[in-house]
Amino acid sequence: MSLTGEEQDILAPVERAPILSRTLEWASINSGTGNLDGLAAMAGYLADAFAQLPGEVRLVEPAPVEKVDAQGQLREVGHGRHLVVSVRPQAARRVILTGHMDTVYSREHPFQRCEWLGEDTLNGPGTADMKGGLALMLAGLAAYEASGPTLGYDVLINSDEETGSLSSAALIAELAQGKLAALTYEPALPDGSMARARPGSGNYAAVVTGRSAHAGRNPQDGRNALVAASDLAMRLAAGVREGLTINPARIEGGAPNNTVPDLAILHFNLRPRTPEQAEAARALIDNAVAEVSAAHDVQVHVHGHVSRPPKPITPRTEALFGLVSQAAADLDQPMRWQDTGGVCDGNNIAACGVPVLDTMGALGGSIHSPQEFLIAHSLDARARLTALVMHRIDRHGVPAA
């Protein structure tokens, strides 16, 4: 297949300069997940920009989220509002496009500025993940809107993807219902490779409560929560197997050197490849907790769950990739598809039974680090890909599985 005259006309207006300008402007705003002021500013810029689309723009309040604090108590964590744009909501056929406005860089993080590393490589916070993706998504949709479209769609840009989308998970599920397909704007790899299957992911906090005592006078009367938490970490780490990774990441708590510590909190992440592995992980946690509780005479309360289900590849997903990869080939953007260990909102959407391609964003790399970079020529290239994919879904639908 090659581009039709109609398709060439749709794509012709897409230019790199305005997409790059918007990317630079948005990357200059610190919108770390915990920076509520920065997220509010970012949401305002996004609302103004996406208002050019012929739909309703609204900001949705985050759902309540609790987190275990350093004292082992649950406390509510604030999040920014989520942006939703609904275009042709009464259309019989609809898709969903998603992205996130938050980054991993706090307002105190030293990485706050953009810098050109060459004519085509832009280093900057959130440039690839995913301020550039948001800018090119909008440009692609604007080009598609000039084609006399009939397809309806929702755009969701949440404020908490980098911490697991806990305050937006219900909103994602609500908006994904009944959609033909989903496009998510996580960055692709520098060579254009797209993410295929993804594992699930869950973040946990195990609160270990022991008994304090004097470390010299009567240590035998104490129950060392720090030692118990360490034992739990080792038991969990020993449960790693094919299809399941477990990462004990941090232990909080402890006490002065002359006191047996009565509180420790173990934070850990697990990533199962399949729902069956997720069940096996739950059993592993339960067994390890029971063994540690008995061995150390402590209490252990575990908070957390697999918040991003595993994302398998279904025949419908294969069909969507076929459509997108053909469009990319027609634009001289050959792409590969490979499994990855990362997770994103594509996991949540796939769990709703909707086929999703979740690396439609800019090309780039070294994300979540001060070396993060964006390949500038991918901005207009991927905007054209979005416009073409939307147009072909509109005219031809998604191929049958």
Give the SSE layout.
Blueprint: H1 5-11, H2 16-27, H3 36-50, E1 55-60, E2 66-68, E3 74-76, E4 82-87, E5 94-100, E6 115-116, E7 121-123, H4 127-145, E8 152-158, H5 169-176, E9 182-184, E10 194-195, E11 201-209, E12 213-214, H6 225-237, E13 244-253, E14 259-260, E15 263-272, H7 275-296, E16 299-308, H8 315-330, E17 337-338, H9 345-350, E18 356-357, E19 364-365, E20 373-375, H10 377-396
Parallel strand pairs: 5-8, 5-9, 9-18, 10-17
Antiparallel strand pairs: 1-4, 2-3, 4-8, 6-7, 7-20, 11-15, 11-16, 12-14, 13-15, 19-20
Helix pairs in contact: 2-4, 2-10, 4-10, 6-7, 8-10
Structural notes for this entry:
Helix content is 34%, strand content 23%. The longest helix is centred in the last third of the chain and has 22 residues, at 275-296. Strand 6 (115-116) and strand 7 (121-123) form a beta hairpin. It has helices at residues 5-11, 16-27, 36-50, 127-145, 169-176, 225-237, 275-296, 315-330, 345-350, 377-396, and strands at 55-60, 66-68, 74-76, 82-87, 94-100, 115-116, 121-123, 152-158, 182-184, 194-195, 201-209, 213-214, 244-253, 259-260, 263-272, 299-308, 337-338, 356-357, 364-365, 373-375. The protein has ten helices and 20 strands. The protein has 401 residues and is an alpha+beta fold. It folds into two domains: 5-69 and 77-198 and 311-396, Aminopeptidase (3-Layer(aba) Sandwich); 201-308, 2-Layer Sandwich (Alpha-Beta Plaits), CATH 3.30.70. A six-stranded mixed sheet has the order 1-4-8-5-9-18, with helices on both faces. A four-stranded antiparallel sheet has the order 6-7-20-19. The model has no long low-confidence stretch (mean pLDDT 97).
